[in-house]
Amino acid sequence: MRGLLLPLAILLATAGCVEKIAESRVRSALVRAGLSERNSDCMAHRMVERLSIGQLRKLEVLQGQKRSIADYVYAVERLSDPEVLGVTTSSAALCATGLVR
Predict the structure, then answer these.
(1) Residues 85, 79: contact at Cβ < 8 Å?
(2) What is the DSSP string of the chain?
(3) Count of domains observed in the chain
(4) Are 75 and 62 in contact, with CB atoms under 8 Å apart?
(5) Residue 78's Cα: distance from chain center in Å?
(6) Torsions phi, psi of 89, nearest 5?
C-alpha cells in the first residue's frame, strides 16, 4: 500500500500543474480572440474545469479583433459543439455579471 502513495501523490501534483498550464493557455486564447483580460481570466477558470482538452483546443482557433462577449459566443456557436457552447455561454454570463471570480 505504501508503494502506491508516492505515485499517487506525484500524479495528483502533476494534474494540478497541468490544470494551471491549461488555464493559462485558455486565458491567452480568449484574450487573442478579443475578450478583455478580466473576462478571459474568469472564463478560463470555469472552462478548464468543465471541458476536455480536445474541446478547449477547438476554441484556440477563434482568434480575432477585439469583440464583445456576445460576439465571442456567436463565434463559438459556429463550432457546432453543444457542450462547448453551453459552458462558454454560462461562463460568459456569470463572469460578465460578476457572480463568479
Answers:
(1) yes
(2) -HHHHHHHHHHHHHHHHHHHHHHHHHHHHHHHTT--HHHHHHHHHHHHHHS-HHHHHHHTT---SS--HHHHHHHHHTT--HHHHHHHHHHHHHHHHTS--
(3) 1
(4) yes
(5) 17
(6) -65, -45
Q: Tell me what pLDDT residue 21 has.
A: 66
For 10-43, letters b (16+ CB in 10 Å) and e give: eeeeeeeeeeeebbebbbebbbebbbeeebbbbb
Residue given cell 456576445 in the structure block: 70
Reading the block at residue 73, the C-alpha cell is 459566443
Q: How many other C-beta atoms can be found within 10 angstroms of the C-beta atom of residue 67? A: 15
Range of the domain at 37: 2-97
Whether the pTM exceeds 0.85: the reply is no
C-alpha cell at 78: 459556429
Q: How distant, in Å, are the alpha carbons of 1, 8, 44, 90 from that of 50?
A: 32, 23, 10, 11
Instruction: Dump pLDDT digits (tens) for 46-88.
Output: 999 999 988 988 888 887 766 788 888 888 999 999 999 999 9
